[in-house]
Amino acid sequence: MRLLRFWIPVALSALVWAGNGAAKTGYVDCSLGNKHRQTPLFLNACVSKPIGYLSCGEKVSVVSREGPRLKIVAADGVEHYVGAASISQRKNRFVPVDLPVPTEPYVPDCTAFRPKVSNPSPVYNPEPDYSDDARMNHIEGTVNLSMTVGTDGRPRDVKIEKGLGHGLDENAIKAVQAWRFEPALDDGQPVEKKILVEVNFNFEH
Question: C-alpha angle 23/24/30, rounded to 5°?
């Protein structure tokens, strides 16, 4: 029974790699001499936040190259991504994994990882005018406003949430009313959304 338990996972692993002829053996690069250095591990080609790390010299199977990253299978048997320059064919010196480098710019399809609901983003936001009264009194700071951005990207119902006075609040409203936005999206469709914005006034001597 011990022999049977041992050979079943090995046979399954062999079937997986037999079906994927592109797999190559690689090692986490140690050429910089720092054996404690760790290589970031990513869930997919569309995220920039590591989900874990690989240790120097760790053996991996390289499945394919996708732009600046390699798709690999590490010891846990799960596909992940690492930087292409972090995996070497040799343990003792860095030799890039022999995979074709794309001739066209690599643009990953990240549609599935984009949030279904997005916030409005400004595409035109001119700065407000400084009032004479605020300039004379050396007033500076931030005016906080709330507004609703429509599906046409135009702000409405602009209100002061926290002001500075001295004519700066009025100038902030006037400036924001001229702003234009990419509207919020809900599952790809433009929607109205209420947001908070800050307008900064820095006194110039």
Answer: 140
